[in-house]
């Protein structure tokens, strides 16, 4: 069941109905029955008295509280002032001896008291009553149901009050129904203005609170609203009276002016509407004896008492402490606002206690963020960017600072870091590992004093203590000892961090009966393989802190590099983040949190069927595509299926190196395309179950993904149809078919070379296509055609979208390159990806782009002992000198287990490994006698056993998938061409209009299948555009809140970090 949609218990329902009945009765009596008998000024000031019960609740809670009662004075004075206001209000009418007003005065006071009961829930937790707390928790759990019941009760009570008041007051229904048409129009306009203005006011209040501009943008405007309304009403009356007295003479009094207004003297028929409005306001003020100073003083005193009492009652809001980013339900008690008394209800509805949410969801100690990066054949420049990013975070949150809200620990997992050296018995680290050590030395100059070299079951490990106390570990993996490739490196660091480093801190507490959720809510994992700034990481942390069910969050990825391929990717990434990711975030959940820069919650990764399934070995064709070719997307799929949400923050920027070579780009997308499709199909296949388990995945969102998937599958055929509509069928039928056949016969490099040549040719065709569409619109002198409207709308939408991202507006220039490259990216690349699904190689950095670097560090090349993982579970390691000649930590392991002499070491290894499983690793690691470095090595050895089996490269059966994909496109082409060949008998005839929307005698003939596809695609774009606009607003709110809450010191540190580049 979704949050807030549970059914309420019967006692809770009864209490809610009783309270809502009294509140709705008070609102109806006050606004419909009593207020018409008082003046506008009196009504405006009277609304401030609805805070009376809030003051009483605060005083009562302070009296009951055991702690110091230092906050009892403001609500106590507030209560006295409000009661004094009531007394002055009653006296002002008793002095007139108008007995007929007594009833309306009583009804008005009763109505304000009943209305003030509306916010009892805000103060219920102050009484420390288990009964009230349970009622409040039940109401919060059933908030949707409570809101529906409340609305129904208010509608019925209001209708009952109106139905009873009309006959009791001596009126007839015809006086209500027989309203002139112009008056009805005015009433409708006023109602519309009230609804829109109230909704906008409520939204802007929420925005102001979330931006941490509560005092200047919420409290002050709300407090001054009543005074502003009074000034707006009274000032024109005084001005008009002065104008009348100038024309009537100095002896013209306010009493005479009131008589003229009452009897309509001096009002012409063509009077301006504003003058009529001022006369109506004056008419409501005239029943008061404005010349009687006593009466006016009493009314003014009551108004001042109510206003001051309301201010003191809500004074606690000035001192309310908010988190950097707050949920609306944590800011306000009730979701609904009160339209008749908007400013009063907004202040009284603000949470009295900022930590209203259960304390289990609030972080009390620093969050541990593990920065985990996987490396392989990165260039020297890429390594430099990564290490500098870790340097920034170390400087941004020093470990020695006890007030930190976040602590960082960095891990780098280096795949295939060892090589055989001729003449040496042992294996040595390769040149890429040497470059990394040199990069660390160059960034942290002078060299770090605290460093150590350890031998591990998977190879070796370097440990550094960074200048500000945070830890950096570099894990060098030997592919002869442990399985290599990216996903298995991720599995390794997930189990090492979640299963050892994090859990070790709390193991003793768990043994004593501690709560395991205490651990899981405090651990987050960041897979950071790019260049980023500290603020970007903090923005992602905010998302996970705010929503307990957010399992992962990602930021805006910016590709870096030079050349046409990078320019193409810059616009491609921009459109993907601007429209696609925002639409997923707004309407459901992001489907892929990219591995280059993402933040994962430890709880989510440790959930059932997430990390355990993530370790599944690929044994089938679909496994290799889904598991290994797009591991980050598959991990997000597992999170979504388990009920977790993945979010996107557009203000969290990260910069990653993009492929600059055509071949490297095609090989990268050869992995991404089929993996994206496989994971999306997997998610849609379990859509019904996922939507039940995951509140973010709704049935409409699944429908949206189905339409997006259909558009992606039919993309190649759509490109062919677009080109054939201008240049004929020859470019459609021959080149794609020829390239498809060649891909089945030629090697991968040859396929890419042919695709590069064809991409250039298709680029010229796309230029001709664009010019032909423009020329057709000019020749026909109309843009009101489906293709014309679609092209113009697409261009305008991209320009507006870019304008809403001002720092990225220049990327629109690359949109021209993206447009002419559409056949290459959506036709040729799709063919290449589908045909080469049997290729499970990584595709990029296969040989490594090695940039010349300074001489490598000698310490690593001299000596890292070679660990015999699972051959000898325990070993002795000698002393190893670090790169400064200092003696690092030395690990000496003893108590070797007994090995059967009849078995070889490899046999013992196999038998030992066969008894291990993923679920047994963590349990075996945490014997109370192994909570030390010896236990850590023991745990690592078992983990290495789990994944030591070599990866089998194989050719996969892909004919079925490829056949289904291409047969769908072929059927789409055949259906469209067949309808075109039949002629106008099966087309839709649309009258042709010129630029002035004047219909001509000509007609446009459109095939229904093409029109349906065009409308569907346009609908998807519009959905994404509106989602982008919504997401853009809340991204701005989050970023402003972040900027307002950062201290000057942190800003200065962040600015210093930005200069490190």
UniProtKB/TrEMBL annotation:
It comes from the Eukaryota. The keyword Nucleus does not apply. GO terms for cellular component: cell periphery; membrane. Its EC number is 2.4.1.16. The chain crosses the membrane at residues 12-38, 44-64, 76-95, 101-120, 145-166, 186-206, 218-241, 298-320, 701-726, 752-776, 788-805, 811-835, 931-952, 958-982, 1003-1030. It is found in: Membrane. One of its GO terms (biological process) is chitin biosynthetic process. It is a multi-pass membrane protein. One of its GO terms (molecular function) is chitin synthase activity. Keywords: Glycosyltransferase, Membrane, Transferase, Transmembrane, Transmembrane helix. This is chitin synthase. The lineage of its organism: Eukaryota, Metazoa, Chordata, Craniata, Vertebrata.
């Amino acid at each position: 069941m979704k949050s807030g949609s549970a059914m309420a218990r019967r006692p809770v329902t009864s209490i809610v109905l009783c309270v809502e009945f009294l509140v709705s009765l008070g609102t109806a009596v006050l606004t419909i029955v009593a207020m018409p008998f008082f003046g506008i000024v009196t009504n405006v000031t009277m609304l401030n008295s609805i805070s009376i019960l809030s003051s009483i609740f605060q005083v009562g809670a302070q009296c009951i509280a055991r702690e110091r009662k230092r906050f009892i004075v403001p609500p106590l004075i507030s209560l006295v002032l409000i009661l004094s206001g009531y007394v002055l209000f009653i006296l002002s009418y008793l002095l007139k001896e108008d007995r007929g007003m007594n009833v309306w005065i009583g009804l008005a006071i009763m109505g304000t008291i009943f209305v003030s009961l509306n916010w009892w829930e805000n103060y219920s937790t102050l009484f420390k009553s288990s009964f009230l707390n349970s009622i409040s928790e039940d109401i919060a759990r059933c908030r949707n149901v409570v809101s529906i019941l409340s609305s129904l009760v208010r509608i019925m009570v209001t209708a009952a009050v109106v139905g009873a008041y009309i006959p009791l007051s001596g009126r007839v229904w015809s006086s209500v129904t027989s309203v002139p048409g112009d008056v009805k129009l005015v009433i409708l306009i006023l109602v519309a203005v009230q609804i829109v203005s109230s909704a906008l006011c409520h939204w802007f209040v929420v925005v102001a609170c979330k931006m941490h501009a509560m005092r200047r943008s919420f409290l002050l405007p709300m407090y001054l609203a009543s005074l502003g309304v009074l000034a707006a009403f009274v000032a024109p009356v005084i001005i008009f009276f002065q104008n009348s007295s100038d024309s009537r003479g100095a002896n013209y009094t306010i009493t005479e002016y009131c008589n003229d207004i009452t009897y309509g003297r001096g009002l012409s028929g063509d009077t301006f509407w504003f003058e009529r409005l001022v006369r109506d306001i004056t008419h409501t003020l005239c029943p008061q004896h404005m010349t009687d100073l006593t009466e006016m003083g009493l009314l003014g005193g009551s108004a001042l008492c109510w206003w001051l009492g309301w201010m003191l009652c809500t004074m606690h809001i000035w001192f309310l402490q908010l988190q950097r980013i707050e949920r609306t339900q944590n800011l306000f008690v009730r979701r609904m606002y009160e339209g008749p008394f908007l400013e009063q209800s907004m202040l009284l509805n603000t949470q009295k206690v900022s930590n209203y949410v259960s304390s289990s969801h609030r972080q009390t100690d620093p969050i541990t963020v593990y920065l985990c990066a996987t490396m392989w054949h990165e260039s020297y420049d890429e390594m430099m960017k990564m290490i500098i990013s870790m340097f920034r975070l170390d400087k941004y949150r020093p470990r020695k600072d006890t007030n930190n809200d976040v602590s960082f620990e960095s891990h780098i997992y280096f795949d295939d870091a060892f090589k055989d050296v001729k003449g040496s018995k042992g294996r040595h680290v390769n040149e890429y590992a040497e470059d990394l050590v040199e990069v660390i030395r160059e960034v942290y100059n002078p060299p770090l004093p605290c460093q150590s070299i350890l031998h591990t079951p998977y190879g070796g490990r370097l440990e550094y203590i960074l200048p500000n106390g945070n830890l950096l570990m570099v894990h060098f993996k030997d592919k002869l000892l442990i399985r290599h490739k990216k996903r298995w490196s991720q599995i390794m660091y997930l189990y090492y961090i979640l299963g050892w480093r994090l859990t070790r801190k709390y193991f003793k507490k768990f043994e004593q009966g501690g709560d395991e959720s205490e651990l899981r809510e405090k651990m987050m994992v960041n897979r950071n393989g790019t260049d980023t700034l500290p603020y970007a990481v903090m923005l992602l942390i905010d998302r996970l802190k705010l929503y307990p069910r957010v399992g992962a969050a990602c930021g805006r990825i910016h590709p870096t590099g030079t050349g046409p391929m990078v320019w193409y990717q810059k616009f491609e990434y921009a459109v993907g983040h601007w429209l696609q990711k925002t639409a997923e975030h707004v309407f459901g959940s992001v489907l892929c949190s990219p591995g280059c820069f993402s933040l994962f919650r430890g709880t989510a990764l440790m959930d059932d069927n997430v990390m355990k399934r993530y370790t599944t070995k690929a044994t089938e064709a679909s496994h290799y595509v889904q598991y290994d070719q797009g591991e980050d997307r598959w991990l997000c799929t597992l999170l979504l299926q388990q009920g977790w949400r993945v979010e996107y923050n557009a203000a969290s920027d990260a910069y990653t190196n993009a492929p600059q070579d055509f071949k490297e780009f095609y090989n990268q997308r050869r992995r991404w395309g089929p993996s994206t499709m496989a994971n999306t199909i997997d998610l849609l296949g379990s859509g019904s179950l996922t939507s039940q388990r995951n509140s973010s995945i709704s049935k409409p969102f699944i429908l949206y993904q189905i339409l997006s998937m259909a558009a992606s599958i039919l993309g190649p055929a759509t490109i062919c149809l677009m080109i054939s509509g201008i240049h004929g069928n020859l470019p459609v039928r021959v080149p794609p078919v020829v390239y498809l056949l060649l891909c089945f016969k030629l090697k991968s490099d040859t396929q890419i070379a042919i695709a590069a040549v064809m991409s250039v040719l298709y680029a010229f065709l796309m230029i001709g296509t664009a010019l032909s569409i423009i020329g057709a619109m000019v020749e026909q002198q109309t843009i009101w055609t489906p293709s014309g409207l679609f092209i113009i709308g697409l261009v305008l939408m991209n320009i507006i979208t870019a304008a809403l991202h001002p720092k990225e507006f220049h990327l629109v220039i690359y949109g021209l390159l993206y447009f002419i490259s559409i056949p290459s990216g959506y036709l040729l690349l799709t063919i290449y990806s589908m045909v080469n699904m049997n290729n499970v190689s990584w595709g990029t950095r296969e040989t490594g782009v090695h940039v010349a670097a300074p001489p490598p560090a000698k310490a690593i090349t001299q000596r890292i002992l070679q660990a015999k993982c699972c051959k000898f579970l325990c070993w002795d390691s000698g002393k190893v000198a670090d790169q400064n000649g200092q003696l690092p930590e030395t690990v000496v392991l003893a108590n070797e287990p007994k090995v059967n002499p009849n078995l070889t070491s490899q046999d013992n290894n196999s038998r030992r490994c066969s008894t291990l499983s993923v679920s047994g690793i963590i349990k075996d690691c945490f014997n109370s006698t192994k909570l030390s470095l010896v236990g850590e090595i023991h745990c690592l050895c078992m983990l290495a056993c789990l994944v030591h089996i070599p990866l089998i490269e194989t050719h996969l059966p892909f004919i079925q998938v490829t056949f289904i994909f291409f047969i769908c496109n072929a059927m789409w082409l055949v259906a469209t061409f067949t309808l075109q060949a039949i002629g106008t008998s099966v087309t839709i005839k649309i009258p042709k209009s010129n630029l002035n929307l004047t219909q001509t005698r000509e007609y446009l003939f459109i095939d229904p299948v093409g029109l349906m596809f065009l409308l569907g695609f346009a609908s998807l774009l519009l959905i994404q555009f509106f989602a982008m606009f919504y997401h853009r607003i809340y991204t701005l709110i989050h970023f402003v809140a972040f900027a307002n809450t950062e201290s000057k010191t942190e800003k200065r540190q962040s600015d210093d970090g930005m200069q490190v580049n």
